[in-house]
Design brief:
four-stranded antiparallel β-sheet; seven-stranded mixed β-sheet
Length: 128
């Protein structure tokens, strides 16, 4: 069973930094597209950053230049370095692994009920 487990969330002041980690067990890590998502209360889940099996990376426009997605393949771990955080980025952050041919790394819909493995999330709170 593929299981992503997020960690590293917490509370920071605006302008601060956090580094999220996502440890993935249950499969050969680099066989899947990986991504970070976030969902604020009352809002839809949005894509933050994705890392495809060929190494290609995409970021949401709102985080470009401030967030960095990376990985440690040997440890089956995905990271999200978040700098210059803003209060409006307070949300639950989720890691996901996508097994589909048309994955969310390749414009596939991340709302699909099949083929995507989600972690439980880690809370990020940014105070002004």
């Amino acid at each position: 069973q593929v299981q992503p487990v997020e960690s590293g969330g917490g509370s920071v002041q605006a302008g601060g930094s956090l580094r999220l980690s996502c440890a993935v067990s249950g499969y050969s890590y680099r066989r899947y597209c990986m991504g970070w998502f976030r969902q604020a209360p009352g809002k839809e889940r949005e894509t933050v950053a994705t890392l495809d099996t060929d190494g290609s990376i995409r970021y949401a426009d709102s985080v470009k230049g401030r967030f960095t997605i990376s990985e440690d393949i040997a440890k089956n771990t995905l990271f999200l370095q978040m700098n210059s955080l803003k209060p409006e980025e307070t949300a639950m952050y989720y890691c996901a692994a996508d097994a589909r041919q048309t994955s969310f790394c390749r414009r596939g819909d991340p709302r699909s009920p099949l083929g995507i493995y989600w972690g439980q999330g880690t809370q990020v709170t940014v105070s002004s």
